[in-house]
Amino acid sequence: MAPIPNISTVKVGHIDDVQELRRSKPTIIPERFVRDMTERPSTLATAIPSSSDIPTIDFSKLSNGNIDELRTEISQLATACKDWGFFQVTNHGIDLSLLESIEKAANDFFMLPLAEKQKYPMIPGTVQGYGQAFVLSEDQKLDWCNMFALGVEPKFIRNPTLWPTNPEKFSETVEVYSKEVRKLCQNLLKYIAMTLGLKGDIFEKMFGEAVQAIRMNYYPACSRPDLVLGLSPHSDGSALTVLQQGKDNSVGLQILKDDRWVPVQPIPNALVINIGDTIEVLTNGIYKSVEHRAVIHKVKDRLSIVTFYAPSYEVELGPVQELVDEDTPCMYRRYNHGEYSKHYVTNKLQGKKTLEFAKIQSKKSNQEGPM
């Protein structure tokens, strides 16, 4: 989730840098990284990897297609949002050289000496800088992952001391990349609104000055990938999340679909989009955020670059009025998005638990979304 300009002091204990662990003690897995039996990657059955499982949306048919192509792609987008909450976008309009540049910038940063990376520390209880986010206690299990996260927009959420000068042109590349991803998010939200029969600009008007953050994740290989997780199961608090997976990397992203963890096989040059908690609330549960996690490979490292796009912190949110009626009663209360963001980043990643913040509790049913 996008960072908020608030710092709290929490005790997190010693956190090993997983790249350093891999380098100096390749067969050692510290106890804080070893998952309980019920959390280990093999606990839930995993489907056979297939890129054809996850819906694919051709963005060029939405933006430049003829009427028939637009209608067909809008229909496919609706199905992707309703049945999966995840989809891959091809022909998204972002120059492929820019995708290569941001991947190189991220990889170059993670390859810096540890002392250099630690000049940009993620203070416990916050989500900007280098380290591990969402660690809130000394006994919490840790993810097998190094993160580097930055608030991008609006400018006031930035912490200038965390924007590195090394690697060269890192910050400049993040700026250019983020502007392009922002345009993509704005356009996707317009088409998502259309799938619901809403005006295309409804979300843009509602969001105000949208909040945007970028997080780079580095998942070193692990000698016992069956014991660890790269990223704990969670849904995103954002409206939309855009994931760029490293070229020729191992398959690491998995989504929970019908109680099975389904691996997301990257399509070359495509971006993976997922629906966040905010869209679930705004659509009154018609489109739901989806739990996902990252698993680790025994031999290959993995890199991912994630953008979170969300409403302004000042905005009051709740289900869109047009999507509430007698048959689909209001399932979520109205709330301030800044308060939800604070709630999200001050809780550990734990499935979709943080969304309880917004749900209207029903005595008759604990089900999510309309009946």
Write a brief caption for the model.
This protein has 371 residues and is of the alpha+beta class. Helix content is 26%, strand content 18%.
Folded structure, characterized:
The protein is an alpha+beta fold and 371 residues long. A hairpin with a 2-residue loop joins strand 8 and strand 9. The N terminus and C terminus are likely disordered. The strands form 3 sheets. It has an 8-stranded mixed β-sheet with strand order 1-2-10-7-12-5-4-3. A 4-stranded antiparallel β-sheet has the order 6-11-8-9, with no helix packed on it.
- The helicity comes to 25-40%
Low-confidence stretches: 1-7, 363-371
Main structural class: alpha+beta
Shape: globular
Order of helices and strands: HEHHEHHEEHHEEEEEEHEEEEH
Radius of gyration: 20 Å
Report, as a whole number of angstroms, the end-to-end distance: 28 Å
**Strand arrangement, largest sheet?**
1-2-10-7-12-5-4-3
Strand content: 15-25%
Query: If helices are DSSP runs of H or I spanning 4 or more residues, what is the number of helices?
Result: 9
Largest sheet geometry:
8 strands, mixed
Mean pLDDT equals 87
Q: Tell me the total number of β-strands.
A: 14
